[in-house]
Amino acid sequence: NAGVTQTPKFQVLKTGQSMTLQCAQDMNHNSMYWYRQDPGMGLRLIYYSASEGTTDKGEVPNGYNVSRLNKREFSLRLESAAPSQTSVYFCASMLWGDYGYTFGSGTRLTVV
Amino acid sequence: GDSVTQMEGPVTLSEEAFLTINCTYTATGYPSLFWYVQYPGEGLQLLLKATKADDKGSNKGFEATYRKETTSFHLEKGSVQVSDSAVYFCALSDRAGGSQGNLIFGKGTKLSVKP
Questions:
Q1: What separation, in Å, do the N-terminal and C-terminal C-alpha atoms of chain B show?
Q2: Is the CB of B51 less than 8 angstroms away from the CB of A96?
Q3: Would you give the DSSP letter of residue A104?
Q4: Contacts B50 to A, Cβ<8 Å
Q5: Which string of DSSP letters, residue by residue, matches B4-35?
Q6: A103, A91 in Cβ contact below 8 A?
Q7: Among candidates B69, B89, B24, which has minimal Cα distance to A100?
Q8: Interchain CB distance below 8 Å, B102 and A48
Q9: How do the pLDDT tens digits run along chain B, 115 residues long?
């Protein structure tokens, strides 16, 4: 039982490059989330998907897009990376009614 | 909107000391409350939760009681160990507006336990 799997674990991008962060869960959870974690800022919600086929903006969506490919997978895309997007990105999933998230181990992204 | 405020760190304690990390919240409804722990280089793990007023969540020697009258959910442990060194996040579930329970996190409190 792998839980929530994020790839890649580390990535360095040049300003203006694009990339997609992948997230997959094998727990049959309904909702999936993307957060970014910055020093002193805690975790901030970027986008979420309450169920397969739906996505919604969180607190800091600018510069990002998401795709809920199926119930298992939820990807985060940076179309034109900026240094301000240097952060650690976490994917999480939740089973409705449980109200507890399961987190992936994170992707550390550096934009130079 | 809903929010969570937790004490700023870092908190440094000696092994076997008593731990309290304060957490207060603002919410329009009746949220569920959570504590998550993040060990270095890892993702967050659920430590404990409470879903209604006066509930006590507990796990691994940690406890927190949902106090509606003081809008608080303070984390406590009677005797910390070096292995408890981590960042602790308080969170509440946002169930307003038909959401399925998006979590709102505090900024985290770093705990260092010295031998």
A1: 41
A2: no
A3: -
A4: none
A5: EEE--S-EEEETT--EEE-EEEE-SS---EEE
A6: yes
A7: B89
A8: yes
A9: 889 999 888 999 999 999 999 999 998 878 889 999 999 888 999 999 998 899 999 999 999 999 999 999 999 999 999 999 999 999 998 764 344 567 889 999 999 999 9
